[in-house]
Amino acid sequence: xxxxxxxxxxxxxxxxxxxxxxxxxxxxxxxxxxxxxxxxxxxxxxxxxxxxxxxxxxxxx
Length: 61
What we know:
Number of strands: 0
Number of helices: 3
Distance between the termini: 75 Å
Radius of gyration: 25 Å
Strand content: under 5%
Largest sheet: none
Shape: elongated
Order of helices and strands: HHH
Structural class: mainly alpha
Number of domains: 1
């Protein structure tokens, strides 16, 4: 029983820290644009393309 005297307050403190962290992330806008990152992966940009073998050979010379 004495273990519960330690474990319950520790568990409540950890839950309070998790709740504060979640509320902070909500207020700071971490969840505002959930689809943006997924769309950026699918939309290719010219600057994100892999370097061609010809470009690598030119840079080595």
